[in-house]
């Protein structure tokens, strides 16, 4: 091999290694910024056939309907807790801050936050649907086939059939 061909080979290998290193670092940096979307049933039972349940401390987004009668506000602070439900279960969400004007019971919401112990989502942001016809695409898709009201949720085995 002549020296000119050798230098081109080394240059090509160096460029390839640089591209691989750059791609690896970008993917590693983005990994910590990804919030996976879950429905309440997926948090309680797992996602799909592989039963992938989120871990405590994992950042996520949860979408569903606000369970009627579940909104509790702390009179001393801006702390609010409520349950988000779908046909497979209900998950409690806590949030400190001012809720969107359109937030109300029986309406669709998406909450971004961290999963805490006992399947409680500690939200840092709560989004409410902006009109009667809009539902976030993830919520619409997840609830299309399995939407039930809160009465059916109370009777499910994983919730013990009571209003707790």
Structure, described:
The chain is 29% helix and 29% strand. It is of the alpha+beta class. The chain has two domains: 1-34; 36-159, OB fold (Dihydrolipoamide Acetyltransferase, E2P) (Beta Barrel). The longest helix is centred in the first third of the chain and has 29 residues, at 3-31. Mean pLDDT is 80; it is low at 153-164. The chain crosses the membrane at residues 9-30.
Task: Using brief descriptors, characterize the structure shown.
elongated; disordered C terminus; 29% helix; 7 strands; OB fold (Dihydrolipoamide Acetyltransferase, E2P); alpha+beta; 2 domains; 5-stranded mixed beta barrel; 164 residues
Instruction: Tell me the overall shape.
Output: elongated
User: In whole angstroms, how far apart are the ends?
Assistant: 77 Å
Radius of gyration: 22 Å
CATH architecture classification name of the largest domain: Beta Barrel
Q: What is the spatial order of strands in the main beta sheet?
A: 2-4-5-7-6
Helix content: 25-40%
């Amino acid at each position: 091999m002549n020296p000119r061909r050798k230098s081109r080979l080394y240059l090509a290998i160096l460029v390839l290694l640089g591209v691989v290193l750059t791609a690896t670092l970008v993917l590693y940096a983005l990994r910590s910024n990804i919030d996976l979307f879950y429905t309440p049933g997926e948090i309680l039972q797992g996602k799909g056939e592989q039963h992938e349940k989120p871990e405590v401390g994992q950042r996520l987004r949860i979408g569903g309907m606000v369970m009627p009668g579940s909104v509790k506000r702390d009179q001393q602070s801006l702390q609010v807790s409520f349950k988000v439900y779908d046909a497979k279960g209900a998950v409690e969400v806590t949030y400190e801050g001012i809720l969107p004007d359109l937030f109300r019971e029986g309406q669709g919401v998406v909450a971004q936050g961290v999963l805490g112990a006992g399947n409680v989502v500690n939200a840092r942001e709560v989004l409410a649907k902006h009109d009667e016809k809009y539902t976030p695409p993830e919520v619409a898709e997840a609830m299309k086939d399995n939407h039930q009201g809160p009465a059916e949720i109370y009777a499910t085995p994983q919730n013990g059939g009571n209003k707790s």
